Automatic annotation (TrEMBL):
<dbReference type="Pfam" id="PF00027">
    <property type="entry name" value="cNMP_binding"/>
</dbReference>
<dbReference type="GO" id="GO:0046872">
    <property type="term" value="F:metal ion binding"/>
</dbReference>
<dbReference type="Pfam" id="PF13247">
    <property type="entry name" value="Fer4_11"/>
</dbReference>
<dbReference type="InterPro" id="IPR036188">
    <property type="entry name" value="FAD/NAD-bd_sf"/>
</dbReference>
<dbReference type="Pfam" id="PF13738">
    <property type="entry name" value="Pyr_redox_3"/>
</dbReference>
<dbReference type="GO" id="GO:0003908">
    <property type="term" value="F:methylated-DNA-[protein]-cysteine S-methyltransferase activity"/>
</dbReference>
<dbReference type="InterPro" id="IPR050294">
    <property type="entry name" value="RnfB_subfamily"/>
</dbReference>
<keyword id="KW-0004">4Fe-4S</keyword>
<keyword id="KW-0479">Metal-binding</keyword>
<dbReference type="InterPro" id="IPR018490">
    <property type="entry name" value="cNMP-bd_dom_sf"/>
</dbReference>
<keyword id="KW-0813">Transport</keyword>
<dbReference type="InterPro" id="IPR000595">
    <property type="entry name" value="cNMP-bd_dom"/>
</dbReference>
<protein>
    <recommendedName>
        <fullName>Oxidoreductase</fullName>
    </recommendedName>
</protein>
<keyword id="KW-0249">Electron transport</keyword>
<dbReference type="InterPro" id="IPR017900">
    <property type="entry name" value="4Fe4S_Fe_S_CS"/>
</dbReference>
<dbReference type="GO" id="GO:0051539">
    <property type="term" value="F:4 iron, 4 sulfur cluster binding"/>
</dbReference>
<dbReference type="InterPro" id="IPR017896">
    <property type="entry name" value="4Fe4S_Fe-S-bd"/>
</dbReference>
Length: 789
């Protein structure tokens, strides 16, 4: 075919050319056949470039370098391409394979224009003895960090920032290498951390627990890139949406809304090299009249869809999923194919159980055809909530990692797509439309759960439409006492503390865990804010305009009555504090300081925590011994460790966080939630230590599986074994060596899950000093203990 390949640089394969020197290039997906006439196998950057340059020359491809296209005009069969040097090229068809690399997402924060901020890493060996921060959790960021930390002799201190807990954008192999580098201490991985300011020699971070400043001589920002939208739209090509990260609308043959112009590769939302090469091959086949050609992944998808009802083709099923499921409607056919390669499809019969209450599971489902019923009452399966075609379910397990909260069964013959946790997180991270849809559905369900009383989705549609999800850094004020704003909020993630100013000092009033709402008092009665509300930890809130909330109350008097009842309870607390102004500095002040101490020590994100009343504790260590005897001879509790305020002690023991740090990077998914909220490590643990590194409270230990101890009777009668409680390290080491047991496992409190009677530490305490409490109760404990009643 008559052709010309235009390249604006002086070399071919610019994306690969700009990879860091010596980078290992992957050839994924491994199960996908390569159709291209050019060879491509996993290997070094330099080897791949040399191979392509040689084969391009051997194949006599008509290449023109230093050819920067500034505009494309005309229509199919008669396009005119204008070049920066003033020359013009005429073509019947155009294939845009320009990618997105030339439009990096720039950092938008103070100091981002300083000279030590760069968006490209050419040669990691150039840098020696520097503190280097890599911003970005995709493949490019991970590979740059690995390259900078590859040679310990360089002396670099490499830190990589990820604003999320999961590395959803990265290939599995890259993530595994990052885990190994983290375990070896070669890279510092900061999860749930974002940069907020760049300074000379340092960078300011927003972490889960507040701001932190670390040394930084160089920043490598790999925060993705955007399509060159202005240029592409000037060519007459339409995008899937107005979102800045959206991709062009494409047909299955890669043709855009401008006939004759085709798009492949990263600009099409398909950034993997093997995909791009196959697409390049396919589009030329289409242009050459081969209309029967099917994509290279067709056999894989056909096998996935083989058991679905009806005789539909792969394209027909892809269109069914895309058009029917709300979160998929703005995805291109190419994006749909990639997503389905990482997902599973199911066909369920009427009344068939999809998953059961308390089952482990972190996947999310989307209903393409049919509907399901959610059993909300464990004792009566007839009490159900229907979810229809196009919607999703299972998102709670995806977000929180909890076990399934309800049994879900098919209400009729149903076809559903199951997204693995990794596939779902990648979808939400890379498809803004899907993220918006999941946000809207989760907000709707949270409102219905909190306010209930027979509300329907239609009743709250206006309120949900006006909602906004707001991220709140730790310590930031959401509502300020005395302000005149009129919004209402729901705590979506994290927790809040409520304070009142007395004598110029903030007095702690109450704690609001995830799922609570606040701000309704000023909305309902029009008063000014009576107290301040700030984030105890890094949190998310859903903000609703007061007008929309009042409209709902007007339409639903039952909701207003409930809100007024909640208001009365909160006003009672406010009135109590006001009445003690004269005695401020006594019991009220003590309560406030005690409650604040508990929040500052991580109880703001706990669901169950062990407290010890040191006025009652006699130091017998029965709690530790009982813990060890209940868990194969290894205690999950260190009574003496931890911090104390007044007489309340927080020992080193798992808090069972609402959003556990330890779950963030568990390769075998061995950390799960039990039915009562307990966070448990199961027998699939591989001893990688990620959970121990991620836990900010030091409550996870790595230890060898303990050898069996002789029974209590043998110890009493014959002195065999180490006796009750945890055996000494020396005894365990000797026994382990004798048995050949060396592998270590992660060990933490599991709230004595499955053991009758509940936590052994509490049951073994002879004085009642040890208590386990939820966040809602520990403030009551603080209040009663300090005499505030």
């Amino acid at each position: 075919m008559t052709h010309i390949l235009l390249e604006k640089t002086d070399h071919l394969s610019d994306t690969i050319f700009k990879y860091q020197k010596g980078k290992h290039v992957m050839a994924t997906p491994s199960n996908l056949v390569l159709r291209s006439d050019l060879d491509f196998d996993a290997g070094k950057r330099e080897t791949i470039l040399d191979t392509w340059d040689r084969q391009i020359a051997e194949g006599q491809v008509n290449v023109r370098t230093n050819a920067d296209v500034t505009g494309i005009a005309g229509s199919a069969g008669a396009f005119t391409l204008s070049l920066k040097d003033g020359s013009v090229i005429e073509a019947e068809a155009v294939v845009l394979a320009i990618g997105t690399q030339g439009n990096p997402n720039l950092l938008k924060l103070p100091g981002a224009d300083l000279p030590h901020v760069q968006y490209q890493l050419d040669d990691p060996t150039e840098y020696v003895d520097e503190h280097i921060t890599v911003i970005g959790s995709g493949d490019a960021g991970i590979e740059n960090a690995l390259g900078l930390a590859a040679d310990e002799a360089q002396g670099n201190v490499v830190t990589i920032l990820n604003r999320r807990a999961d590395f959803a954008r990265a290939k599995g192999a890259n993530f595994k290498l990052l885990e190994e580098a983290e375990a070896d201490g070669r890279i510092l991985v900061r999860r749930e951390t974002s940069p907020i300011e760049v300074r000379e020699g340092e960078i300011v971070l927003e972490t889960r627990d507040g701001q932190e400043t670390i040394p930084c001589h160089r920043i490598i920002a790999r925060t993705g890139s955007q399509p060159p939208r202005a240029f592409v739209e000037q060519c007459g090509v339409e995008f899937a949406s107005d979102d800045r990260a959206a991709f062009p609308k494409l047909t299955p043959s890669f043709e855009t809304t401008q006939p004759g112009i085709h798009v492949i590769g990263a600009l099409a939302g398909y950034p993997l090299i093997k995909h791009c090469m196959n697409q390049g091959y396919d589009v030329i086949e289409f242009l050459n009249g081969n209309t029967e050609l099917k994509p290279a992944d067709e056999p894989i998808l056909a096998e996935k869809f083989a058991d679905l009802p009806g005789r539909r083709t792969v394209d027909e099923w892809l269109e069914t999923f895309r058009s029917q499921v709300i979160i998929l409607q703005e995805l291109s056919p190419l994006q749909m194919r990639e997503l389905m390669l990482d997902s599973t499809v199911h066909a369920y019969g009427r009344d068939e159980v999809i998953f059961s209450r308390n089952e482990p599971g972190s996947s999310m489902f989307a209903i393409a055809e049919g509907s399901v019923l959610v059993e909300v009452d464990p004792s009566d399966r007839s009490v159900t909530v229907p979810i229809g075609t196009g919607s999703i379910f299972g998102e709670v397990g995806l977000i929180s990692g909890r076990k399934r909260g309800s049994t879900v069964r098919a209400a009729e013959p149903t076809v559903a797509v199951e997204f693995s946790r990794l596939a779902a997180l990648k979808l939400l991270a890379t498809a803004p439309s899907a993220n918006r849809a999941v946000n809207r559905i989760s907000i709707e369900r949270q409102v219905l759960q909190i306010f209930g009383s027979g509300l329907t989705p239609e009743d709250i549609a206006e309120l949900v439409e006006a909602a906004e999800v707001v991220k709140v850094p730790a310590g930031e004020v959401v509502i300020e006492e005395g302000a005149d704003d009129k919004d209402i909020y729901i705590v979506r993630v994290g927790s809040m503390v409520v304070e009142k100013d007395l004598g110029g000092k903030p007095v702690f009033l109450s704690y609001l865990p995830a799922g609570s709402y606040f701000g309704e008092m000023a909305v309902i009665d029009g008063s000014k804010r009576s107290a301040s509300v700030r984030a105890a930890i890094k949190s998310e809130v859903i903000r609703f305009p007061g007008e929309a909330f009042n409209a709902l109350l007007d339409a639903k008097p039952d909701i207003r009555d409930r809100a007024l009842s909640d208001m009365a309870a909160r006003r009672e607390i406010n009135d109590f504090v006001e009445s003690r102004k004269a005695s401020f500095g006594g019991a009220v002040d003590m309560y406030s300081q005690t409650a604040q101490f508990l929040v500052d020590n991580g109880l703001g994100e706990a669901t169950d925590v062990l407290l010890i009343d040191e006025k009652l504790c006699v130091g017998c260590d029965n709690c530790e011994k009982a813990c060890a005897d209940s868990h194969d001879g290894l205690s999950r509790l260190d009574r003496e460790a931890g911090r104390t305020y007044a007489h309340l002690h927080v020992p080193t023991s798992c808090r069972h966080c609402e959003h556990p740090h330890c779950m963030a990077d568990c390769p075998p998914n061995a950390i799960k939630r039990g039915p009562d909220g307990e966070v448990v490590i199961d027998e699939t643990c591989i001893g990688c230590g990620n959970c121990q590194r991620n836990c900010p409270y030091g409550v996870i230990r790595m230890d060898a599986k303990p050898p069996a101890k002789p029974g209590l009777l043998n110890w009493l009668l014959f002195g065999a074994g180490p006796g009750p409680g945890e055996a000494s390290y020396a005894w365990r080491k000797n026994k382990a060596a004798a048995s050949g047991e060396t592998a270590k496992l992660a060990i933490k409190c599991d709230m004595c899950s499955g053991i009758e009677g509940g936590p052994a530490c509490v049951r073994a305490c002879p004085t009642g000093a040890a208590i386990r409490v939820s966040p809602e109760r520990f403030l009551s404990v603080a209040r009663l203990e300090e005499g505030v009643d």
